[in-house]
Amino acid sequence: MDLTSVILTTGGSYGFFTLVNAGVRKLPMPETACRNAWKWRNISTSFVHSFVTAIWAVLCFFLHPQMAEDLIETHSVFSHALVSFSIGYFIYDFFDMVLNQKLSLSWELLFHHVVVITCFGLSVLSCRYVGFAVVALLVEINSVFLHLRQMLRMASLAAGTLYRVNSMINLGTYVVFRINTLAWMTRWLVLNRDKVPLLAYTLGSVGMAIMTAMNIVLFYRLLRSDFLKGSTREAKKEKEM
Fold this sequence. Notes:
It is a single chain. This protein is mainly α and 241 residues long. 77% of the residues lie in helices and 0% in strands. The protein has helices spanning 3-26, 37-63, 77-100, 103-126, 130-136, 140-154, 161-191, 198-226, 232-236. The radius of gyration is 18 Å and the shape is globular. The two termini are 29 Å apart.
């Protein structure tokens, strides 16, 4: 994909999620979620991104298995488009939070988005590390259940069977697709140090360190809230990453 295609895909993604948010606004909303309608729309939009991206990322490796053997140079237009599409979403979500949520409540996610946009931007503009970026997007498989969990809580369904089942799947996919994926990516980066320029290596290392720290904190919060004896205060501090 050339620069024009990247800009069109990213811009199209931004517009798509703007329309998704507007569409959610017109759909029925749980009465308990009406107290924070913006958050309900934001999480619902994020759920759509995770659902689409999770399937797309798996298809990238299924349709182009060679990419798994060379995460630096080998990629398809399909996978390049996925990374550009996700950049559009993260830009959209960044501005959605800046305009509608207090900085004290969103700074972690805003920081996360800046890191992701920077790393993915380097990938799509240089046409390198696209495979590595697609591996990173496999975490969206877990994000589907992470966002669904928060939607169920907002709808006051946290005491039901669906919530318990989702909590177990969420924790399982968290370990497999977040913690394990981040660990594998860190290992890959170290082993391929000689193949990666200093700037990209530094950016990747810093990004991985930040993502690992944030996900460990979120994992603790999930455990405490859903499986351990947690406090109400801790539950309120939860925020999707």
